[in-house]
Design a protein that fits this description.
The chain is mainly α. Helices cover 48% and strands 10% of the residues. It has one domain. Helix 1 runs parallel beside helix 3. It binds zinc ion.
Length: 165
């Protein structure tokens, strides 16, 4: 069932979060002209194989509208949803994230909001899904923020390591 997918993803993220954050820190802090150019990693399981691009917000949620965007903290730069992607391996993408997206999509699609409501279990799963989106947004932000720092010194890394999904 769907909660086993959430549980599995959460377990993976928790067991790999230190490696993932270390990798982002190493690769995204700007060091003068040079930048470490290691291969992308899956931000969920730290896999380096078959890394694909995963939309932070699923395309159906913004109706595939290429013009929709949100403002970021960095000089008010526009971030288009269509370009808001994070790396995820095809295994996580297909086996875990895909099932979760499909479940959530159908939940919204099949619920008649005029005369029915989500069950408590469905609400729990929507909250878990939102937490997952929040995690992806945090990773997206931290990758960008690192890029605008000159060194690790000014970063409060302890805060970063608190990222949890
Ligand atoms: Zn993965």
């Amino acid at each position: 069932m769907i909660d086993s997918k959430f549980r599995k993803l959460r377990t993976i993220v928790r067991s790999k979060s230190k490696e993932v954050i270390d990798h982002i820190a190493l690769n995204h802090v700007h060091r003068g002209e040079s930048k470490r150019n290691d291969a992308e990693i899956c931000i969920f399981c730290y896999n380096k194989v078959d890394v694909t691009k995963e939309h932070v917000l699923p395309t159906w949620a913004f109706a595939n509208n290429l013009q929709r965007y949100f403002d970021t903290d960095i000089n008010g730069i526009k971030q288009f949803y269509i370009k808001a992607v994070i790396p995820a391996c095809s295994n996580c993408n297909n086996n875990l994230l895909g099932s979760i997206e499909k479940y959530i999509y159908n939940l919204f699609k099949n619920t008649n909001f005029k005369d029915s409501y989500f069950s408590n279990e469905e609400k729990q799963n929507i909250i878990r899904w939102l937490e997952l989106i929040e995690y992806k947004f945090q990773i997206l932000e931290v990758r960008k923020n690192f890029w605008h720092q000159k060194s690790m010194d000014i970063l409060n890394t302890s805060q970063i390591y608190q990222f949890r999904f």
